[in-house]
Amino acid sequence: MKNKWASCSTAGNLTFNSELLNLDKNVGDYVIVHELLHFNIPNHGRLWKSLMRAYLGEYERYEEKLRKSAHQKALLRPQ
Ligand SMILES: [Zn+2]
C-alpha cells in the first residue's frame, strides 16, 4: 500500500491507504465509491461514470484534486 490509494482483490477485499485520511473528505469518498463500484463494474465505462455521478455529483473535481495531490498515487484497477 505504498504506491496506491486503494486496491481491490479478486477475493473481494478492499484495502485503502491510510494517507487518504489526510485528504479532503470528498476526495476520500471519491476513492471509496470508486473502488466499491468496481465490485459490480470492472471498468470505467458509461455505467460506472453515471453511478459515480449519482453518488458524488461532480466527481471529476475530486478526481482532479486527487491527481494534483502531492502523493501522485494512482488508483488501482481491479486485477
Ligand atoms: Zn478504477
Secondary structure elements and pairings:
Elements: E1 6-8, E2 14-16, H1 25-37, H2 46-56, H3 59-68
Antiparallel strand pairs: 1-2
This protein binds zinc ion (ZN).
Structure description:
It is a single chain. With 79 residues, the chain is mainly alpha-helical. It contains three helices and two strands; from the N terminus they run E-E-H-H-H. It has helices at residues 25-37, 46-56, 59-68, and strands at 6-8, 14-16. The two termini are 15 Å apart. The protein has a two-stranded antiparallel sheet. Strand 1 (6-8) and strand 2 form a beta hairpin. The model has no long low-confidence stretch (mean pLDDT 84). It has one domain (24-79). The site of zinc ion has 5 residues, from loops.
